[in-house]
Amino acid sequence: MPSFDEVLKEAGEFGRFQKRVFFLLCQTGITFSSLFASVVFLGQAPDNYWCRIPGAAELGELCGWTLEEERNFTVLPLHLGNRSSSGECERLDIVWDTSVSCTSLLARYSNHSVGNLPLTTCHDDWVYEQPHSSIVSEYDLVCGNAWMLDLSQAILNLGFLAGAFILGYAADRYGRIIIYLLSCLGVGVCGIIVAFAPNFTVFLIFRFLQGMFGKGTWMTCYVIVTEIVGSDQRIVGIVIQMFFTLGIIILPGIAYLVPTWQGIQLAISLPNFLFLLYYWVVPESPRWLLTRKKGEKALKILHNIAKHNGRYISPHYSEITISNEEVSNPSFLSLVRTPHMRRYTLILMYAWFASALIYQGLVMRLGMVGGNLYLDFFISGAVELPAALLIVMTIDRVGRRLPFAISNIVAGIACLVTAFLPEDIPWLKTTVATLGRLGITIAFEIVYLVNTELYPTTLRNFGVSLCSSLCDLGGIIAPFLLFRLAAIWLELPLIIFSILAVVCGLLVLLLPETKGISLPETVEDVEQLSSSFGKCGKKRKHRDTNSYI
Questions:
Q1: pLDDT at 277 over 80
Q2: Are residues 189 and 303 in the same domain?
Q3: In a domain? residue 542
Q4: Bridge-partner residues for 127, per DSSP?
Q5: Domains in the chain, number
Q6: Which regions span the lipid bilayer (predicted)?
Q7: 547 by DSSP, 3-state: which?
Q8: Is 104 part of a structural domain of the chain?
Q9: In this structure, are residues 460 and 170 in contact, taking their beta carbons and an 8 Å threshold?
Q10: What would the pLDDT profile of 456-471 be if each residue is shown by its tens digit?
């Protein structure tokens, strides 16, 4: 009986139908990357703000002050008396006297130096020149509350982590496309609520949920694209990530043109509602249908693919081979029960963790060195395009494993060299750092493809989602690790990044080469990879199968 890959070859492995589905699902990468990196622009630090004194509004009304005059009369004396204070995080702790003159508020303290006046910490009464430009000014995430901005990104990554477990499991149990559509709906609805959140608690709750659903859209669309093409066309798994990069490049343009954080939030959330139209044009993965013993539906979809591709499936392909492996709900134990699956899972989990921590760390480090945020962010995104092009040009020639290892090692060496380059050669320091960013981007993109190719269809979505959950853990840790270590020595995070990357490069050499192999359908297929697809690329032994009639 013909296997799924044999029937797919008859229907067309990457014809007009797959190209259309591929292009449509690629748009998910743009919206997901915008969500992924949105905190950079949603959380921009306000340029000008100060701590308002109690009763300042009443004083302003009584004295007829403008905001600028209020600042001059209430903050400037503090700065003059205490040069270390700018009036942003503390204020003078005195009773303001307006009985003499609105311009002589400190008359009763004329016998004391302004520098000796008592100070107190500002808690919840700041004034911003642009009060709705970012979530920082919206929810007072300044001074002692500044850590809450890092918390908002950690909560988003925590949502990604939850989505990897919950929606990854659901996609393997209930189907790829239904979970994709529900996730798109969830991202859109939660995104709107985030934009109009009345307080920071509501903001965090729905940002977590948006992250969870966002992870569902990205991982599920990636798996669908990989499963509907032939083994020689799985490079589309790399190309789809170019749209992730495209989202990174577009985001600063959106942020530059839209003046408020609510507008930016809506701009990256509302397009998800358009993806609901895919219900009529993107089918369920036929590979998944076969694993759920639904061969008739899978064959019907394959006939439809063939029709749109201008191909014809022979009548004797009326039955498709189905594995004897019993259909079961995916679990973590399924990924570690057998020796090779266990080794692959642990290595891939570390690779996801290291890639995400280093990638996000290098992106956030860019903001620490100053410069034009919009231009620097655009350039950092543009640097990622050559990474995808290099992968496309080499991965089907030399395989996956070697570029995977080399890119990690190059990133590690570049980070180490950057840490010790002198500051008075900025062009060289920037060039080497860019090489590190390029290397870790290549590694980050390859891990998606390798992870997909190493897991059987019965566990693929769950396995990819579970392993990539370590990516989200790395994202949670990255901001805290970066800023804490940078406080000790600015370049210390680069040393840690270097160690993580080199170790990862060595570990991935223990993975099997997956170039040109058919996607494994069962755990047994995965266990045979090392022995049946070594360097010589020998054909895998036939598994015990029966047919669907």
A1: yes
A2: yes
A3: no
A4: 50
A5: 3
A6: 21-42, 154-171, 178-198, 204-225, 237-258, 264-282, 344-362, 374-395, 402-421, 427-450, 462-482, 488-511
A7: strand
A8: no
A9: no
A10: 877 877 787 788 778 8
* Residue 201: inside a domain: yes
Helices (H) and strands (E) in the chain, counts: 25, 6
Q: Are residues 81 and 34 in the same domain?
A: no
119, containing H or E segment: strand 119-121
Q: Which residues contact 245 (CB under 8 A, 6 or more apart)?
A: 33, 381, 384, 385, 387, 388
Q: In this structure, are 189 and 296 located in the same domain?
A: yes
Residues 197 and 252 in one domain: yes
Short-list 146, 124, 190, CA closest to 483? 146
Higher local confidence (pLDDT), 516 or 275: 275
What pLDDT, on the 0 to 100 scale, is given for residue 264?
95
Q: List Cβ neighbours of 440 (8 Å cut-off, separation of 6 or more).
A: 355, 358, 359, 362, 407, 408, 411, 501
3-class DSSP state of 19: helix
Q: What's residue 88's pLDDT?
A: 72
Nearest to 470 by CA among 154, 152, 207, 157: 157
Residue 130 is classified by DSSP as S
**Cβ–Cβ < 8 Å for 443, 391:** no
Let me know if residue 543 belongs to a domain: no
CATH number, residue 410: 1.20.1250.20
The vertex-485 CA angle with 480 and 490, nearest 5°, equals 120
**Which domain, by its residues, includes 486?**
330-531
Indicate if 154 and 272 belong to the same structural domain.
Answer: yes
